Input
Amino acid sequence: MQNGVLITAPNSGSGKTVITLGILRALARKVNVRSAKSGPDYIDPRFHEFACGNTSFNLDTWAMTSDRLKELSCGKGTYIVEGAMGLFDGDSSGLSGSTALLAKTLNLHVVLVIDCSKMAQSVAALVRGFITHDTELNFLGIILNKLGSEKHEKMIRNSLSDSFFPPVIGALKRDSAFHQPSRHLGLVQASERDDLEHWLDNMADEIEVNVDLDKLDFNNNLKLKSKKLNSPPGQNISIARDKAFSFIYPHLEQDWKKAGATIRYFSPLANEPVPNSDFIYLPGGYPELYAGIIANNSIFINSMQDASKKSLIYGECGGYMVLGKILIGNDGTKHKMLNLLDLVTTFESPKLTLGYRKLTSIKGSFVGSFFGHEFHYAKTEQFNGESLFTSSDSSDNSLPNLGLVNGLVSGSFAHIIDKTET
Output
């Protein structure tokens, strides 16, 4: 029995995120619908939540066990999962981390979104290749995207008429109105689009007319409670949350709450003081876009400096940069940060660093071994102090140590996804 539907594509840029959002909003008009995102992406799941009204979890086949994936997928309602990159793209060692492995692990129907903008009958060859590449996958249907005309659609449908192919369950014309703006980490964040509700409703209207939604209404039948929970780093936890700090995985917060921790939120951008707590978390995000504001928010700065004398403080990626001395913008402007770590970071001449990471704590607030990832354009200009993690890549190649520790304060560019099996 299938446990939901996976929306995937041969490659990034095919339109699967936009189509997924339209499907979620359209289904949410009549049924309870839940969603998830394959891989470590932070941004798409927040759009999912706006579209369907339920928490969207990240499901990562490299960083999570099959039991963990199933536990995070449990729940009532129609279940829609969005893939990442191309269907078979994973880490350097093979299918691990791929959308295809997730589909097999959770027993999901697969819907293939095809960008038809630059081909016609060749779509059939492409689809045939994907179907035969892994015969264990259950292909439910095809959605044709970015069609130029009715004639274009008819040509492609005719090429897919053989009974070998799954049915075409949707066809969408090329329309720039459904374009999503992007930034260097992906889509612009959901909280930054004032027109998001209107845009989602328009997309849902289009989906209702052009996609057979009845084919996608599959309830999740998984029932499993994972024993692998991430222990809370404190009993009273304060998390920075606003447009500058938003990259935190919901499953981590859920684990901490299940373990009895209390979580409160505060906004550095609103110049709010950090609440009294024993653990303070500055997650990643886009602090470089608001560095001038952060540098002048004295209430936030003073409260963090006071808290560093008595509370554990941890920063990831963007949060890590804010814990440092200076953050240099892409225009060369130097912004003073919290000065809690001997760290200077810069966005001048940005260079992408990305990849899965195996992390083991040397010291600091997170004790143990973890699976994580790096994805950042910032570079380190100054870096002094004790390291936070030993690090290796997904193929177990050793990498330089990551992060810094200074007393109760620690951080690194790595994002923790889940703890390793013990």
